[in-house]
């Protein structure tokens, strides 16, 4: 699960990028103001390592680092 907090409702492009800069996943989501809990089963298939979650709504970009440990 990924939690993304937005100040206004918007459609955002959500990407998961590995430590080498390769995009592993990209989806578009409609996000509401406040916390949005997103579930992507395909993230669980990624190898152990460091990844970056990138949320781009066209006006701002949020990048968060996370790790997968198996």
* Span of the ends, CA to CA: 15 Å
Count of runs of 4 or more consecutive helical residues: 0
> Low-confidence parts, pLDDT < 50 over ≥5 residues?
none
In total, the number of strands is 6
Structural class: mainly beta
- Overall pLDDT, averaged? 91
The major pleated sheet works out as:
4 strands, antiparallel
**3D shape:** globular
H and E order: EEEEEE
Strand content range:
over 45%
Q: How large is the radius of gyration?
A: 12 Å
Spatial ordering of strands, largest sheet: 3-2-5-6
Helix % is under 10%
What does this 3D model show about the protein?
With 70 residues, the protein is mostly beta strands. 0% of the residues lie in helices and 63% in strands. It contains no helices and six strands. It has a four-stranded antiparallel sheet, with no helix packed on it. Strands 1-4 form a two-stranded antiparallel ribbon. The protein is globular, with a radius of gyration of 12 Å.
